[in-house]
Amino acid sequence: MRTSPGRKSKPASETRTIGGRGGNVTETALEARHLFKVFGRNPKQAVQKLKSGASRTDVQDAGTAAVIDASFTVNKGEIFVIMGLSGSGKSTIIRMLNGLHDITDGSVVVGGDEIAGVPASRLREIRRDNVSMVFQHFALLPHRTVADNVAYPLELKGVSKAERRAKANEVLAMVGLDGWGDKLPSELSGGMQQRVGIARALAADTEILLMDEAFSALDPLIRREMQEQLVELQEKLQKTIVFITHDLNEAMFLGDRIAVMRDGRIVQIGTPEDILTDPANDYVEQFVQDVDRARVLTASNVMERPRPVVAESAGPRTALRQMRDAYMSAAYVTGKDRKLLGMVTDRDAVKLVRKGEAALGSVIKPVPQSVSEDEVLMNLFVPAVESPLPLAVVDAEGRLTGVIPRITLLAALGPGPNATEEITLPMPPVPQAEIDAVLGEADAATGEAAATEEEVR
Amino acid sequence: MDGFRIPLGEWVKTGVDWIKDNLEGLLDFIAFIVRFLVDGLTDILTGTPLVVVIIIAALIAWAVRSIWMAIGTAVSFLLILSMGLWVAAMQTLALVIVAALVAVIIAIPLGIWSARNDTVRMILKPVLDFMQTMPAFVYLIPAIVFFSIGVVPGLVATVIFALPPGVRMTELGIRGVDSETVEAGHAFGATPGQILRGIQLPLAMPTIMAGINQVIMLALSMAVIAGMAGADGLGKLVVEAISTVNIGKGVEAGLGVVLLAVFLDRVTAALGTPGDYPSSLLGMLSRRRAAQRVEKTDAEAAQADTAKLSASGQRRAVL
Fold it and tell me: Which residues, other chains included, contact A148 with Cβ-Cβ below 8 Å and sequence gap of 6+?
């Protein structure tokens, strides 16, 4: 069971697992090796100095170093986010990927083609056929209708008019703009204009999409909507997307992997979880503080090994023992392959033991709440509250892979690298029997039953 | 210091003489073309029945601006006629139109070139400043030397004088096109020529049209001065009025220039910003066409919707 309709699922996490699932060999769509970009009078000399360890301010006289020794690879079908504040060089980098800025030093390989130093005509071919781009301020042609804007890349490719028109309408429908083709861009709202921008890039039908702060000029609500739509489109189309942003939340939401830039250098590349839980330096850590962790971390990031859990084949005695050790009033029951079958309560187990039955099968109850591994924490709070046991986490095949006690969920929201590690209670509670003895209660049996009814944690 | 003097004027005179002696063929050719164009246009304007010229002018005004502008145009042309200035006005109009055309044909490519090349821009800027600030009469002297008196030196001086705003505004317009939009052209693999034709020129058009408007206005003001060089037209009448201190004649000729100026200015200004004049003939036509297009697509959309409805039994909201 995934989520109830009212709650938002996070499709991005599904694409995130595609690369890793079943050990697929990931293909490289784009590779940047030791990229340098220096604006100014003597760029080559500045690069030499930078290579021998000079800092950005050291080479100020020779030129402004916008990008310093940046290397990364982008895999086919992933969203690769380059994140940094203004002036960090991210916009320069993305323009080097399609040759809008020439490369001072290093190399960029797009689908097997080297970009650095190729003649202008070849570069235009690559831009027409391999790499398209979406711009921060949309960059639509105000004198052309929406459909003609979308068809612009096709026009440059020399596609016939009827074919252009058909493709434009198809792509417009894809971004939710069918029927708007005859309007002028100025008649559309900002969000819709950027949809046209995206549609134009999609119409070019290129493997790689470069998005330069594509949503930064939109207001927050529209931005959220566009992010979700992009993720949806990406699930369908499986493009390779390089996305530039200064907004870490956006980076975390969209990115399969994120490169964090500072002062022209890439300081960390990793999955959103990597960057959140294991920031490479103080700078990244400072950044990460503002991130809404509940929207980034997933169940699999915070879950603990399942406990208490008994195999279906084990008897009620084992179940009771497990529950006692874990201070729980119920335990999960798994079948073959650790498949989650349900849960058994202590009362039922006690009854079984009293009756002398050896099989748990008759008393297994359905689990009221379980969540999938890639659910974000945001969507776990309600299930966690409703679940009498630590929240069960199951994988795509329905196997019980872990549990999330409420306390773990809480701790995961706090900053610091330890937040997602398994929490051990500082001190186990005094055993019930001891308390009973101390209080000298007469009716131990009923008391114990009532007390264990509540969850210990 | 009294005896010391740089003979700059002498040098220029020598240069001018050299050109006159050595490039006579070229000068004759230019003179022939100019005379052919101006005389031809003058003949057409004066040869056509008055009423037809007035109606065409009024229609042009209506097409780009409004019915009121058309009426105003007809009234001012009739006024010119009633002052007995018709032929002179048509001669001036012909001179202005040819001069403006030549200036625009030279100015726009120059403007494009200097927008795309900083070196050209650096060289062109002081040259344009020089052309614009040099007193206009001064151009007449070498022009008369080259082409003797008549309409040709007047036109050459007019072209030189009217050229700079055309170049400047073209350059300004192209440089002012949103850089991200131009970048988008590059990013989708457009050639520089495609970017110029498909993005830069259309987006710079309002500014370029403002430049052309300036060219025409300067050409008109210079056309009057060209009267001093012997070019026929309102200018010549003004010059005559000055030399005979004839107030009445001077005011009438001057008024004729003003009426022509207002007509030319309003028409070319409206061409640059067609969206501002919804009541013009062209505006009404394009709106009708747009309405038809929308109706058509609405009908198509409705058809598609009903098709969808029947297919899935469920209607998906657009946005």
Answer: A141, A168
The closest of B272, B291, B292, B270 to B281, measured between CA atoms, is: B270
Res. A11: pLDDT tops 80: no
Residue of B179, B186, B188, B200 to mutate, testing the A interface (most A Cβ within 10 Å of its Cβ):
B188
pLDDT for the residue A456: 46
User: Which chain A residue has the Cα nearest residue B182?
Assistant: A139
Residue B180 near chain A (CB below 8 Å): yes
**Distance between CA atoms of residues A323 and A346, nearest Å:** 7
Mean pLDDT, residues B285-311: 67
**Structural tokens at position B236:** 């010549």
Which parts of chain B fold into alpha helices (H)? 8-22, 24-47, 50-64, 67-82, 86-116, 118-133, 136-147, 151-175, 179-187, 192-195, 201-226, 234-243, 247-272, 281-312
Q: Which residue has the higher pLDDT, A313 or A78?
A: A78
Residues pairing with A330 in the sheet: A345
Residue A177 sits at the chain B interface (C-beta within 8 Å): yes
Q: Are strands A391-394 and A370-372 parallel, antiparallel or unpaired?
A: parallel
Query: What is the CB neighbour count within 10 angstroms for residue A439?
Result: 10
Task: Please report which helix (H) or strand (E) contains residue A343, including its range.
Answer: strand A340-345
DSSP state of A417: G
Secondary element (H or E) of residue A208: strand A208-212
pLDDT digits (tens, 9 = 90+) for B66-121: 889 999 999 999 999 999 999 999 999 999 999 999 999 999 999 999 999 999 99
A140 contact residues in B (CB cutoff 8 A): 181, 184
Residue % of chain A over a pLDDT of 70: 88
Out of B181, B191, B318, name the one closest to residue A124 (CB). B191
Mean pLDDT of A353-357: 83
Task: List the structure tokens of B37.
Answer: 């164009």
Give CA torsion, residues A178, A179, A184, A189, to 10 deg: -60
Given the structure tokens 């050595």, which residue do they identify?
B22
Is residue B253 within 8 Å of B88, Cβ to Cβ? yes
- Provide mean pLDDT across the span B217-240: 88
pTM of the complete model: 0.73
Q: What is the mean pLDDT of chain A?
A: 83
Specify burial of residue A249 (Cβ count, 10 A radius: 0-12, 13-18, 19+).
middle
On whether any CB of chain B is under 8 Å from the CB of A118, the answer is: no
**Cα(A21)–Cα(A372) distance, integer angstroms:** 15
pLDDT band of residue A359 (cuts 50, 70, 90) is confident
- Confidence band, pLDDT 50/70/90 cuts, at residue B315: very low
Q: Which residues of B238-256 are buried (b: 16+ CB within 10 A; e: fewer)?
A: bbebeeeeeeebbebbebb
- Confidence bin at A422 (pLDDT 50/70/90): low
- Cβ distance B188 to A153 less than 8 Å, yes or no, reads yes
Which tokens belong to B174? 């192209």
Strand order from edge to edge, sheet including A330-334 = A309-311, A330-334, A340-345
The whole-angstrom distance between A158's CA and the closest CA on chain B is 11
pLDDT at A388: 79
Q: Is B311 on the interface with A (CB under 8 A)?
A: no
Alpha carbons A324 and A26: distance in angstroms, whole number: 46
SS3 A273: helix
Q: A123: nearest CA in chain B?
A: B189
